[in-house]
Amino acid sequence: MSDVSFQELKPPPRILLGPGPSNISPRVQMAMTQPMLGHMDPYFTTIVADAVKLLRFLFRTENEITFPISATGMAGMDASFNNFLESGDVVVIGVNGFFGERMVDIASRCGAEVVRLDVEWGRIVESEAIEAALKSRKRVKLLALVHAETSTGVLQPLAEASRLAKQYGALLLVDAVTSLGGHELAVDDWGIDICYSGSQKCIGCPPGLSPFTASKAAQDILERRASKTPTFALDISMLARYWVPRDSRFYHHTVPICMLYALHEALVQIVEEGLEARIQRHLRHGTALQAGLEAMGLTLHAQAGHRLSTLTTVGIPSGVDDLRVRQRLLNEFGIEIGGGLGSLKGQVWRVGLMGYSSTAENVLLFLSVLEKLLVEEGHSLLAGAGVVAAVQRLR
Ligand SMILES: Cc1ncc(COP(=O)(O)O)c(C=O)c1O
User: Fold this and answer.
1) pLDDT in tens, 186-197
2) Measuring CA to CA, how many Å separate 62 from each of 176, 213, 265, 275, 276?
3) For residue 147, which atom of ligand 1 is closest to its CA?
4) Whose C-alpha lies nearest to ligand 1, atom 10?
């Protein structure tokens, strides 16, 4: 017997109100315990075909290329740039937060010429700036925007951006990691060409899959590439031959069976709830949380009128210890929230209300616990004001 030490696997129960993952429903949890099957098993491939149909429903698209990539949201981002860009292509990227910055990094690695559209973190990228950037080069191949900036809590409007992309002959690429399944998103109606998300946020599944879709125009680009897609694991044309085959299913990699069970169950639950009802649920709870925080005298970071309901950024009052509050939330109350990312580190907290975690109970619990902790930090506020405002909003 070797002396390797280990502990019993016994994760503590948590209320996940951070930027993701969010809690999963008991049904999704149970789905993952179903028997293992081979990825070419005829029963399993019916689950795959269902998952593709359900993802088309969720993305609101008819795109043939629609499937989950077997990795997290970052793989969706990597796949989106690596497949559709080639060296020397021009891409305009809205950078109003941490994830826009990551897009720039990835696009640069593809050898593309990146036109950055820098905006103060917490504000949207305005249409005028988008148009100026699209005009600034002879031929822009992609316009890339983050729909829901998880670092700032901002919801980027897409309708005008899409119109401009079409006008200047660029494809529109959208990161919907923190919006798909929680905010309105209509890939076909809004003219989005390339879109990816993550399973672990508003979809209500564990982390590990990145739902992906690409339009016919984007698909044509894949067929016209001068060079091979530089990544084998994320080669969309090859992946399509497993997920959405035109003839026989092609082995590319062994897909994560239990994750597919979980995704299937989570998507079925979304259909049962209804997409519109689900979006309204996220809106109701997000706005109640925001009303409560403001009633407590706290400042919301994201631009008014463009706030996510799935993720709220709130300023940390001066004199309050960021880390101590988050640690107490976790250790004493089992509640996880997120700290600030990048330049917002130490400035804001990020409170997610996504998927199964988006409940009225979680809103009220979080507000009352936060009030207690802030008072104990020496911050004065009107007792009970947050919960009262949230209850009013929930009604
Ligand atoms: C907007 C956005 N894009 C991309 C990602 C990357 O996703 P993942 O962490 O699942 O790889 C995240 C993760 O939080 C995100 O919020």
Assistant:
1) 999 999 999 999
2) 17, 9, 21, 16, 19
3) 1
4) 73
